[in-house]
Amino acid sequence: QVQLVESGGGLVQPGGSLRLSCAASGITLKLYTMNWYRQAPGKQRELVAFITTTANTNYADSVKGRFTISRDNAKNTVYLQMNSLKSEDTAVYYCNVRAQWGQGTQVTVSS
Q1: DSSP letter for each residue of 57-94
Q2: What are the beta bridge partners of residue 10?
Q3: Average pLDDT over residues 83-103
Q4: Confidence at residue 109, expressed as pLDDT on a 0 to 100 scale
Q5: How far is it, in rounded angstroms, from Cα 11 to Cα 8?
Q6: How large is the average pLDDT for residues 13-26?
Q7: What are the two backbone dihedrals, phi and then psi, of residue 70, each rounded to the nearest 5 degrees?
Q8: How would you classify the pairing of strands 10-12 and 105-109?
Q9: Binning pLDDT at 50, 70 and 90, where does residue 104 land?
């Protein structure tokens, strides 16, 4: 049974940083492209970043230069480092691999 568990969300002031983690069980993450999505209230879920099996990465224009996706294959975990956070980054963040989703972690950027 595949499980993805996100953590690391919270309340942060504008300009602050957070690091999200997605720990997997029942699946070997290094064999798959991993995605981070987010969904803000009243909006559609959007792809934020992905990392391929060869560590190529891609980002939504709205987060480029501020967010970094990475993976630790030994820990079977994917990360999303988020810097220079803005209020518009407020959302529930989800990790995804193939058809599997985590439960999400809330990120709130507010002063």
Answers
A1: EEE-TTTTTTEEEEEETTTTEEEEEE-S--GGG-EEEE
A2: 107
A3: 97
A4: 98
A5: 10
A6: 97
A7: -150, 170
A8: parallel
A9: very high
Using an 8 Å Cβ cutoff, are 102 and 6 in contact?
yes
Q: Residue 77 corresponds to which tokens in the numbers above?
A: 């975990």
Provide CB contacts within 8 A for 2, sequence distance 6+. Answer: 24, 25, 26, 27, 97, 100
Cα separation, 67 vs 105, whole angstroms: 16
Would you say 105 and 92 are in contact if contact means Cβ atoms under 8 Å apart? Answer: yes
C-alpha closest to that of 90 among 35, 41, 54, 55: 41
Place of tokens 């079977």: 76
Give the integer Cα–Cα distance in Å for 69 and 35.
9
d(CA 37, CA 76): 18
pLDDT tens figures, 69-90: 999 999 999 999 999 999 999 9
